[in-house]
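Standup notes, structure subgroup. Blocker cleared on the adenosine-5'-triphosphate input:
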Amino acid sequence: MSDEIKKEEESLNFLEEIIEQDLSAGKYPSIVTRFPPEPNGYLHLGHASSICLNFGLTRKYPGYTNLRFDDTNPVTEETEYVDSIKEDVKWLGFEWKHERYASDYFDTLYEYAVKLIEKGLAYVDDSTSEQMAAMKGTPTEPGVNSPYRDRTIEENLDLFTRMKAGEFPDGSHTLRAKIEMAHINMLMRDPILYRIKHAHHHRTGDKWCIYPMYDFAHGQSDSIEEVTHSICTLEFVPHRELYDWLIEKLDIYPSHQYEFARRNINYTVTSKRKLLQLVNEQYVEGWDDPRMPTISGLRRRGYTPESIRDFCDRIGVAKRENMVDVGLLEFCVREHLNKIALRRMVVFDPVKVVITNYTGEGEMLSSENNPEDENGGTRQIPFSGELYIEREDFMENPPKKYFRLAPGQMVRLKSAYIIKCEQVIKDEEGQVKELQCTYIPESKSGADTSGIHVKGTLHWVSVKHAVRAEVRLYDRLFKVEDPTDEEGDFKEYLNPLSLQVLPAVYAEPDLLHASLQERYQFIRKGYFVLDKSSNPDQLIFNRTVGLKDAWAKEVKKG
Ligand code: ATP
Ligand code: MG
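Run returned:
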């Protein structure tokens, strides 16, 4: 191993450095992290990066990770999302220690709020949201104190109790922290802690009509769970001051917040809100449409958990936002699938080959499942006198160094024989209808005594044994790198060619037994997986990724 590679492997990211220091200084005997999704959509690749980071740290260091649903907003959250999030985290290969819900802490949070009021550090404000905005000031001008700021503790306790009891309509009162209206950090200008919302919650039902704001629930939930390292994305940097203020004033477990850069991936969007629009407005089939950057979409597309974890490891953690090339994700899945995918033969656009000197009924030929896996075993493929090959693998007037089939030219059929094209038969329109060939009986793969060497090897299927299948070819969801950075609505930049359906391709019969758990390489075509809607009468395969990076080539061509 060269020194450089070794160094790369041993170098720590900034969070690992902090944790190693904390552990060696004896600040904590072990660490606790959490992954805190809001259950208002399905998880996407950005979340995958946060999951790999949080769970990865407690895999590497002593400690554990909680899964905490940040369900403080009753209106947007649904049980369907909770279930999908759990399934996705498990599928990615991680186990949480405790499954928790911010809503489990509503009673405790309420007590914390009362404690702040009793300390004179929170007050009930009757201002409307417009009035509050007007008093907030600007980054360069201080704000103005609310006329309700100096209410007595008794008055505040009474009003807050009545807010909880449902005496007031939505928007009429809020509970605010009493910090400083001239604070340089706008988030410290008496932030709202509680608002009234007469809404049904997916877990607490109708018990509450006041709900804590994000800033009042998040850090406090961290403390309740004794999270040591609370990792979030950079937009929360300005919130850290409030996070620390609340922990200090409440005198609760001192969790610490650390921020890393959000991961954005080109040619797609990673925002639940935007993905929800694509689902609701039916630009895609659903959250698990194989073009979606969701974990469930990637799973249906044939991505493996290993390849997604590898991708997240390679992009690592950064302190500055940047765009990650989706080509890296495709590279990672290609690498993994090359090792595990079963090789199969499928002809997409067939032309018939008749082997005029093949007199037998047919025979079974053996072919290895995966040359990259010595324990991969073999399968049987039926061979006969009538075959399909790919139309694009024949050329009537080939250029020099054309190693596929052409009049008078020989090729090898994969795991079968060498054939020679003797005659081309065309229909009335001049389209090639049939290729009449002869085969070399001594050239059987594995027992070739013909002494003939050919350069081209083609995939094929036997006409009478082939099974029909539908194939869905996916491409990037958007035609521009960053659809949110363009003029107008991001949906105007959807790639109209992101899905191409081939309703009838010809597959070797073994694929009748294809299963959702397996991955396949259709030889010379790409990597494929069975779709969940497939059945033996109507086989459907999704293309995960092509064999080569077609886009990189495009870019080079210019
Ligand atoms: P979205 O904008 O898609 O709704 P979010 O940040 O609001 O994302 P949450 O459910 O609140 O989604 O996020 C759960 C965790 O995942 C948070 O810790 C958040 O920081 C992290 N996360 C979300 N998106 C990304 C991303 N693109 N890159 C890295 N981490 C992310
Ligand atoms: Mg969110």
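Discussed briefly. Confidence is low (pLDDT under 50) at residues 1-8.
Next: hand off to the docking folks.
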